[in-house]
Design brief:
Bound molecules: 2-acetamido-2-deoxy-beta-D-glucopyranose
CATH class: Alpha Beta
Distance between the termini: 103 Å
CATH topology: Carbonic Anhydrase II
Helix content: 10-25%
CATH superfamily: Alpha carbonic anhydrase
Radius of gyration: 22 Å
Largest sheet: 10 strands, mixed
């Protein structure tokens, strides 16, 4: 009886704090509310993106080139770090430029998103929320501007290389403060010229709010086996976390959503230039003949 009252009080406390208790034992298939009824959920498998190439998509991830203090936190979502790591300026799939500031880094093992059906060993997600000045000018607009953005970076175990980020960010430091330079540890991985995918989806944890512009960089980065094992130990290796499961939510239905590709030479553009090239050769040929 005392135990029941305690449990009820605990649940009431969590509701009061706006926290929802959940776990990854079935990849989120038992999560309720928007998580089960939403039609624009994340993560998704990114495939069939032909015809959605858009040369006007732009992204600028301006992480601070100075030390930022943070710590590694382990909770029901897995491993994360809170802090302001810098800014993001990016166009959403409707062509609207939005500015955001970073507030959290989450590490998911294995990856949540997949590309053409293939997942990755780790997906690092940098969470951003809209800057006040952008919210003020863009609110009430149609189509609606989403308040959050996440930049995803994939990591694949590599036998010869290690990750700069996971050199400074280690779960063994849980609870103790440390500093790192965001611009340095992600140097080269999320540059404004790298190819990326973008679509509109949700948070990948309850309440699964459909408020996220996703920016996913498909070029995976190296992580050493030792670095990888150090993270796995705290998630799949901790049977009290999710009974041996990772902290990745199951893949959700795309439901006909648009996925755009940024920083690639679009096919249409290529055919356009290619036909000019052919025309140029023909003209030269005829001029040559006339002479
Ligand atoms: C750790 O970092 C947090 C956030 O920056 C700060 O509030 C806290 O005082 C720091 N703790 C120590 C012991 O430095
Ligand atoms: C990123 O790498 C380039 C080339 O290796 C280097 O010139 C630049 O200083 C680096 N930037 C940071 C912030 O570490």
């Amino acid at each position: 009886m005392v135990l029941q009252i305690f449990v009820v009080l605990l649940i009431l406390c969590q509701i009061a704090q706006g926290q929802i208790t959940y776990n990854y034992k079935s990849g989120g298939s038992d999560w309720t509310g928007t998580c089960s009824t939403g039609q624009s959920q994340s993560p998704i498998d990114i495939s069939n993106i032909q015809g959605t190439c858009d040369n006007s998509m732009t992204i600028d991830v301006s992480l601070y080139n100075q030390n930022v203090q943070t710590s590694v936190v382990k909770d029901q979502s897995g491993l994360s770090s809170a802090g302001d790591f810098g800014s993001l300026y990016a166009k959403d799939i409707n062509g609207i430029l939005v500015g955001y500031e970073a507030n959290q880094i989450q590490v998911h093992i294995p990856s949540e998103h997949s590309i053409d059906g293939s997942g990755y060993d780790i997906e690092l997600q940098i969470y951003f929320s809209i800057k006040k000045e952008f919210q003020a000018t863009l609110s009430g607009q149609t189509p609606a501007v989403l308040n959050n953005a996440v930049v995803s970076i994939f990591y694949t175990i590599d036998s010869t290389q290690s990750s700069n980020f996971f050199n400074v960010w280690t779960p063994s430091s849980i609870g103790t403060n440390f500093s790192f330079n965001p611009a340095t540890v992600f140097n080269g991985t999320i540059d404004s010229t790298n190819q990326y995918y973008s679509y509109q989806g949700s948070l990948t944890q309850p309440g699964c709010d459909e408020s996220v512009n996703w920016y996913i960089f498909p070029q995976s980065q190296p992580i050493s086996q030792i670095q990888y094992n150090d993270i796995k130990k705290y998630i799949q290796g901790d049977l009290t976390f999710a009974g041996g499961h990772g902290n990745n939510r199951n893949i959700q239905s795309v439901n006909g959503r648009t996925i755009k590709l940024g920083n690639v030479q679009c096919e249409e553009q290529f055919i356009y230039f290619f036909s000019f090239f052919i025309l140029y050769i023909f003209i030269n040929y005829f001029i040559f003949k006339l002479l």
